[in-house]
Structures are given as C-alpha cells and as structure tokens.
Design brief:
82% helix; 0% strand
C-alpha cells in the first residue's frame, strides 16, 4: 500500500520553468512600471516648481518695475519746478518702465498660453530671462533709492535753511 501524504524532500516536483519565467517577467515589468512612475512624478514636480518660479519671478519683476516707476515719479516731482508738468527726462524714464511692464505682460501671456505645452528647457530659459532682467534692474533700483535719500536730505537741509532766515 502506498502512503498518502507529503512527499519526502528528495521526491519534490521541480518548479515549472514557464511559471518561473512568467513570475520573473511580471516582477521585471512591475519594477519597470514603478521606476517610470517615480521618474514621471519627479518630472511633474520639477515642472510644477518651474511654473511656481516663473510666476513668482514675474510678480517680483512687476513689483520692481512699479517701484522704479514710483521712485522716478517722486524724484521728478521733487526736482521739477512745476510737478504737474512732467519733464522730458521723466517722460523717457516713464516710457522705459512702461516698455518693461509691456514686455513683462508678454511674458505672462506666454506663460498662460504656451507653458502647458512648453518643454522644461523652454521654461528654464524663460525663468533665466526674467532673472537676468531683475538682475539688470536691481542696481538701478539701488541707485534710485540712494538718489531719493540724498534728495530728501537736501530738501530737509533747504527747508531748515529757509526756516532759519
């Protein structure tokens, strides 16, 4: 009579080679899919970060340009004989700032219309362009602030002299 029950170790049936190959293939596909998911997630995170950077740069550049315009208006109002009539240099400065604001509007329109389909390189180039514009504007803003400080000091000194006489 034959014994029914578990087979001894040395009589175990070998694994089916097709089953082993199928399991290895499934495992390889799962690893590949997981790798692709991680890669796509990183890509999306980088793109979202680039978009946030672009919008933040546009906001900061706009603030810089408006600060520049305001400072120029204040300086010209203090220096002009008739603050209600802008001087030629004030008109030139206003035109330059307005041109900067128009260029910024064009950048914002590009972001709105083209950024969803833009490559990462295009997003990076646009951000780089905005950073360069801000970098060029910063020394001008500092010089304008310094000139405004000096102008205010001179005005206070003039008022003090006038009140002493």
């Amino acid at each position: 009579m034959r014994q029914t029950g578990p087979l001894p170790h040395d009589e175990a049936a070998p694994l089916n080679p097709y089953l082993t190959l199928g399991m290895a293939t499934c495992l390889a596909i799962l690893i590949l899919l997981a790798g692709m998911a991680v890669w796509m997630r990183k890509r999306q995170a980088r793109r979202a970060g680039s978009m946030r950077d672009l919008l933040d740069l546009a906001d900061r550049l706009e603030l810089d340009l408006k600060t520049c315009r305001s400072g120029l208006q204040q300086a010209h109002a203090v220096m002009s004989l008739n603050p209600d009539l802008p001087a030629a240099s004030e008109k030139d400065a206003r035109h330059a700032v307005d041109a900067g604001l128009r260029a910024l509007l064009q950048q914002r329109l590009w972001i709105r219309d083209h950024s969803p389909a833009a490559s990462q390189h295009e997003l990076d180039e646009t951000a780089s362009s905005m950073r360069e514009a801000r970098d060029r504007l910063q020394p001008l803003l500092k010089a304008l602030a310094q000139a405004q400080t000096e102008l205010n000091s001179a005005m206070r000194e003039q008022i003090r002299r006038d009140s002493d006489h």
